[in-house]
């Protein structure tokens, strides 16, 4: 019987025999868009001995986890899908979560990825083995794998953020986070409180308002809202998408181009695009909210784009329903029966829903990644995560992060960025057929990050509002400062001169 290095025989029998002999080619952590994309790319360039480690019991990442009512994408499907895998099951422009998850499942099936996935594998640690020239990856349950290349595809929005509000644990009713929606808790006729007014809340508030006895929405900052021009395609369009080759291409291109142009709104200097966004959001607000008191409450007090600009045509109307209250007084504490605001009022609730976002700046946590000479990634990233092109870190050979630091966008589709990363990974994997290890050079990494931070300091994200784009110290760790085309250009080819090669 085989035994693994920890001597745990029961875990060892779970390992395929070949692993004890030879490391795998690639281990990928996560089976969201990034993980699936990395696996598809690795296979395309001839690396077939792969494993995808998935902590859940299905693929999909955030699209498996976020099942709140109304969960949908705010990027149209033409752009929020892989350019190389067409699927015409989307019924409307902005697909809802079940359709996106279906798309991902069909994609995984089409590329034969299911056989590669180890479900229930929450990675605890990944450690570089210099002598063996490979990564040793260990799951919480003791299973382990060795692989020449490690790809992290765990996303930026996979860990819910719980607010540090006094008395949170004392609430006597049901409570949960929007990313862990508890469908067993009935909301019909009940008093529901929602904390937060970000992208998640504005999608489920209109749905909850339809059934709740009373809904109180606790807003700390008002979001900017653009109208959501959603719609069903109708049979004819669907048939055209399905049967006319290339019919979807102009849609994809125009949406991408629009996203590129909209990126100008994130420059700190005032410009035409920001002015257009301000005008459209103001008109949307004036049209949908006639009451001056409510209008004042939902008018943002920070520069547009500093937090994510949201799309909704049913959020403002939901706030005006008789059974909905928007509360803007700050929260002092949570107690057994509800929420107490700083003005001393008590707001009783039966159900409390936290729409308080994600621990987006804690990249890769809780996975412990140890590189050359015992270097710990979380320690390196103590003051904010950094990587070269969002993907590679000095001292961490053959390690690639998908949707890593500074690759999030304010105005375009993240799937485009993931495809750029797939292309870059392809370059790396091709090199790794000839050499043992690639680790980005410290000077290349440092120069890149200096440039990035200099440019980011001139964006609206640095204008002083708080957002998940930055650490508590204000370092912008999540967003890419330019257009996506620039990222495409810079990641198109891996330049071996940027790397120490072993
Ligand atoms: O989270 P958020 P989200 N007391 O961080 C408030 C993606 N997404 O889950 O702004 C009171 O945006 C906080 O207030 P403030 C998308 O990229 C995509 O909504 O900090 N309030 C804010 O209102 C999005 O950007 C889709 O003042 C507190 C809210 O909680 C990202 O996920 C759909 C608080 C958090 O908003 C995150 O969105 C959904 C406290 N102590 C989500 N702490 C798509 O369509 C926090 N808040 C693709």
Q: What is the topology?
A:
Blueprint: H1 9-12, H2 17-21, E1 24-29, H3 33-44, E2 50-54, H4 62-65, H5 97-110, E3 117-119, E4 123-129, E5 134-139, E6 144-152, E7 174-177, E8 191-195, H6 199-211, E9 214-218, E10 225-226, H7 234-243, H8 249-262, H9 272-288, H10 292-297, E11 310-311, H11 315-319, E12 324-327, E13 331-335, E14 338-341, E15 346-348, E16 351-354, E17 368-370, H12 377-380, E18 399-401, H13 414-431, E19 438-440, H14 442-456, H15 484-491, E20 499-501
Parallel strand pairs: 1-2, 1-6, 2-3, 4-17, 6-18, 7-16, 8-9, 8-16, 9-12, 10-11
Antiparallel strand pairs: 4-5, 5-6, 13-14, 14-15, 19-20
Helix pairs in contact: 3-13, 13-15
Bound molecules: 3-acetylpyridine adenine dinucleotide (N01).
3-acetylpyridine adenine dinucleotide (N01) binds at residues 72-74, 157, 163, 165, 195-201, 203, 220-221, 307-308, 331, 355-358, 466, 468.
């Amino acid at each position: 019987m085989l035994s693994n290095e920890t001597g745990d025989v029961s875990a060892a029998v779970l390992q395929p025999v070949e692993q004890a002999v030879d490391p795998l080619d690639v281990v990928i952590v996560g089976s969201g868009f990034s993980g699936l994309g990395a696996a598809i790319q690795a296979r395309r360039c001839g690396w077939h001995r792969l494993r995808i480690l998935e902590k859940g019991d299905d693929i999909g990442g955030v699209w498996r986890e976020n099942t709140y009512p109304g969960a949908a994408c705010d990027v149209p499907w033409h752009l929020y899908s892989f350019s190389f895998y067409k699927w015409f099951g989307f019924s409307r422009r902005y697909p809802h979560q079940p359709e996106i998850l279906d798309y991902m499942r069909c994609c995984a099936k089409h590329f034969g990825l299911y056989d590669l996935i180890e479900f229930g594998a929450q990675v605890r640690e990944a450690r570089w083995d210099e002598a063996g020239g490979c990564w040793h990856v260990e799951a919480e349950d003791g299973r382990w794998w060795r692989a020449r290349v490690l790809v992290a595809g765990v996303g930026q929005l996979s860990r819910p953020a719980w607010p540090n509000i006094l008395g949170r644990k004392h609430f006597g009713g049901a409570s949960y986070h929007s990313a862990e929606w508890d469908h067993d808790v009935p909301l019909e006729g009940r008093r529901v409180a929602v904390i937060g007014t970000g992208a998640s809340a504005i999608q489920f508030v209109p749905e909850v308002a339809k059934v709740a006895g009373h809904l109180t929405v606790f807003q700390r900052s008002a979001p900017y809202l653009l109208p959501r021009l959603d719609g069903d395609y109708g049979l004819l369009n669907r048939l055209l998408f399905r049967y006319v080759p290339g019919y979807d291409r102009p849609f994809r291109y125009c949406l991408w181009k629009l996203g590129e142009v909209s990126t100008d709104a994130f420059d700190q200097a005032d410009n035409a695009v920001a002015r257009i966004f301000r005008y459209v959001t103001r008109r949307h607000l004036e049209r949908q909210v006639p009451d001056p008191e409510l209008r004042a409450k939902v008018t943002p007090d920070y520069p547009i784009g500093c937090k994510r600009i949201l799309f909704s045509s049913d959020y403002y109307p939901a706030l005006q329903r008789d059974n909905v209250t928007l509360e803007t007084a700050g929260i002092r504490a949570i107690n057994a029966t509800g929420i107490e605001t700083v003005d001393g009022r008590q707001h009783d609730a039966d159900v409390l829903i936290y729409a308080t976002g994600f621990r987006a700046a804690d990249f890769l946590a809780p996975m412990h990644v140890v590189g050359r000479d015992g270097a710990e990634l979380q320690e390196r990233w103590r003051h904010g995560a950094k990587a070269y092109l969002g993907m590679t870190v000095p001292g961490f050979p053959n390690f690639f992060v998908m949707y890593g630091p500074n690759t999030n966008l304010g105005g375009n589709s993240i799937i485009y960025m993931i495809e750029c990363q797939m292309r870059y990974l392809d370059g790396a994997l091709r090199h790794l057929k000839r050499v043992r290890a690639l680790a980005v050079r410290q000077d290349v990494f440092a120069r890149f990050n200096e440039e990035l931070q200099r440019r980011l300091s001139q964006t609206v994200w640095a204008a002083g509002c708080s957002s998940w784009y930055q650490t508590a110290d204000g370092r912008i760790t999540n967003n890419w400062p330019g257009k996506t085309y620039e990222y495409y250009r810079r990641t198109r080819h891996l330049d071996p001169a940027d790397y120490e090669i072993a």
